[in-house]
Design a protein that fits this description.
This protein has 222 residues and is of the alpha/beta class. It contains seven helices and ten strands. The chain has helices at 45-52, 75-85, 101-111, 119-128, 144-156, 174-189, 201-204; strands at residues 4-14, 18-29, 34-38, 60-65, 68-69, 86-89, 162-166, 193-198, 209-214, 217-220. A hairpin with a 3-residue loop joins strand 1 (4-14) and strand 2. The radius of gyration is 17 Å and the shape is globular.
Length: 222
């Protein structure tokens, strides 16, 4: 059963001139898919993720999440679906600034399907990401690389069906970038799916399915 499907998706912006980052894009995401989308900065990779995660509405085409046409869902239904099914890693920090790292992960758990705190799961994930001694820190007290790993922890903590990762290895050295990619691979092995956008060919190569986005078109790489 597919997790997500984009059918003939197009998106246009007016920025002095018409810019079309997505033109008639089709993509099906199934359990066990590890997908990378590469391409130069500013080409529309983030737009693709935002549309896939239903955070940005396409101008044309249809998006299906969990076999549901998102255009037929209420805002509340769509918010609940995202919270239960999707883990996001944005380029910019999406941590709640007034909460500690531990509290950010507890809040993320509360939004998920289980709706309860699993302190052991939080502790294990923070240890894995080298953040155990930062659990009581506020986001501004973390370094750029630590915040990046914290955002990955937040995205992964509920074991979502779909992880959408926007340049998740930014600000990370090779050791931690490799660890993030390994965590993605483990999530995929358990039946989840990952879509990772990056301009770095090295990390794109960690995905089993590789696409390139250019001139609004999504092309499968050999």
């Amino acid at each position: 059963m597919e997790i997500c499907r984009l059918e003939n998706i197009s998106k246009t912006y007016m920025m002095g001139e018409e810019i079309c980052p997505l033109q008639d894009v089709n993509l099906t995401i199934n359990p066990g898919d590890f997908i990378s989308v590469e391409g130069p900065s500013g080409i529309g990779k983030s737009t693709l993720l935002y549309v896939t995660g239903s955070l940005l509405e396409a101008d044309e085409g249809r998006l299906y999440l969990d076999n549901q046409d998102v255009s037929l869902l209420t805002d509340r239904q769509l918010t609940a679906l995202r919270a239960e099914k999707i883990g996001f890693i944005f380029q910019e920090t999406n941590l709640i600034q007034a909460l500690t790292l531990q509290e950010n992960l507890e809040f993320a758990q509360a939004l998920g399907k289980v709706c309860k705190t699993d302190s052991q799961a939080i502790a294990a994930l923070l240890e894995r990401l080298g953040l155990a001694d930062r659990k009581d820190f506020l986001p501004y007290q973390l370094s750029g690389g630590q915040r990046r790993r914290a955002m990955a922890a937040r995205a992964l903590i509920n074991h979502p069906s779909l992880i959408l990762a926007d340049e998740p290895t930014n600000d990370l050295d090779d050791v931690w970038a490799n660890e993030i990619v390994r965590l993605f691979a483990e999530a995929v092995a358990k039946g989840g799916a990952v879509v990772m956008v990056t301009h770095n060919n090295k990390w794109a190569g960690g995905a089993a399915i590789q696409y390139r986005l250019e001139h609004g078109k999504l092309a499968l790489l050999d």
